[in-house]
Design a protein that fits this description.
By secondary structure, the chain is an alpha/beta fold. Helices cover 45% and strands 14% of the residues. The protein contains 15 helices and 13 strands. It has a seven-stranded mixed beta sheet, with helices on both faces. Strand 8, helix 8 and strand 9 form a beta-alpha-beta unit.
Length: 394
């Protein structure tokens, strides 16, 4: 466990994944804790499973490392809550079946009923709510949760009929402050970045469901059409088989000179520079647990137009035709969307500026900080009133 101590009485337990490895969920959890630390003291219980260096364990994939970490996490959580009952920011609430079993065990065995919980799902709950068993078990857990924090309105739909609307808070995901770009930097990018070739950036788990393989096919189509483009991939492999499959497909398509894979980028300055030197962020995801990819918000911040799919809460972030394009995940549709930036002069600059404005209006750290503080302090105040009244239940 790690603590962020402050000289006041606002103390919470944060159950979540923290780096390493660095991915969207672990970075967002750490950034939120640090962003709120001036006002709230967090003790952090880390549930991260640590595979070999350079690899990740993405949501929905069960691994032996993850099972061990689940058991360790549950035991530590029970021990801590027995000694130090407190409000909980449950930042690993899961939409996958393995994660859901862990959550059921946590609420049945480790979390006392009187402790208020704010649940923060980082992936879609659609898979759970599409089955009768999932709806029943999710409903049981929901009765123990004071508030659900959902990244976008689209992600709240699966909870209808399970969680009362007044217990759902909409707060977007948070990007790392080290990645923040100024408006001046974005304007310099728009003025200086050469129009040819189109520079495409993919940031995400290197797994087929995220669409990186489909992007390769789209690049081959663009190459055949005479549209010059280069693609940079950033992300860790979930398995050696995926790494081999991707490299072989690059070779077969003859894209060795057009595609470069960086692997996991742990240096925020390097990742920030990549966003500032690429025209488009392309994430043709078809992942069943897709929620609100933090990489898309990072791209808006840096003035990247976005080509993605209408999965999860992505339509709440990207308006197709304004900040980029949302397409079918097929290679043909992806290639068609990218080609528009080649055939229509000025379109990229217009979308890039709109993307930056979208970030400033809805996803800046201060906006998100104020929403989180309002929610957590309201929950804490209720908890203290019940404690003062010597009530044993929530």
């Amino acid at each position: 466990m790690a603590s962020y101590p402050k000289e006041h009485s606002r103390r919470w337990l944060c159950c979540g994944r923290f780096p390493p490895p660095r991915d969207g969920q672990s970075i967002a959890t750490q950034e939120l804790v640090e962003l709120l630390a001036p006002d709230i003291t967090f003790t952090c219980l880390n549930s991260t499973a640590r595979p070999p260096e350079g690899r990740i364990i993405p949501p929905g994939r069960l691994r032996i490392q993850r099972v061990r970490e689940m058991l360790r996490y549950l035991s530590t959580l029970r021990s801590f809550m027995t000694r130090h009952p407190s409000p909980i920011l449950y930042a690993i609430f899961s939409g996958s079946w393995p994660g859901h079993l862990r959550d059921c065990a946590a609420f049945a065995w480790a979390i006392p009923p009187q402790c208020p919980v704010v649940a923060w799902p980082h992936n879609s709950l659609q898979t759970l709510t599409s089955s009768a068993v999932g709806r029943q078990t999710l409903g049981w857990i929901a009765r123990r949760i004071r508030s659900f924090v959902i990244a976008g309105p689209s992600l709240s739909k699966p909870l209808q009929g399970i969680v009362p609307q007044d217990r759902i808070a909409i707060i977007p995901n948070l990007i790392a402050r080290a990645l923040l770009c100024s408006r001046e930097e974005v304007e310099q990018k728009l003025a200086r970045l050469p129009s040819s070739p189109l520079r495409l950036l993919f940031v995400g788990h290197m797994m087929p469901e995220k669409g990186g393989w489909r992007l390769l096919e789209a690049i081959a189509l663009l190459q055949a059409a005479g549209i010059p483009c280069q693609a940079t991939y950033v992300g860790g492999w979930s398995s050696p088989a995926d790494a081999t499959s991707f490299a072989e497909r690059v070779r077969i398509l003859g894209l060795q000179e057009r595609v470069h894979h960086h692997g996991l980028v742990s240096n925020p300055a390097m990742l920030r520079e990549l966003y500032l030197t690429h025209h488009l962020m392309v994430l043709p995801t078809d992942h069943p647990l897709e929620a609100q990819p933090i990489s898309i918000i990072e791209a808006l911040n840096a003035g990247c137009a976005v080509v993605s799919t209408p999965r999860g809460s992505i339509p709440d972030v990207v308006c197709s035709g304004v900040h980029g394009f949302l397409t079918d995940p097929s290679p043909e549709a992806i290639a068609t969307a990218i080609a528009r930036y080649w055939h229509e002069p000025g379109l990229w600059q217009a979308h890039a500026r709109a993307a930056r404005s979208q970030f400033e209006s809805n996803f800046s750290p201060e906006i998100i900080r104020q929403r989180w503080l309002q929610l957590l302090l309201e929950v804490e105040a209720e908890y203290r009133r019940f404690q003062h009244a010597n009530m044993k239940g929530w």
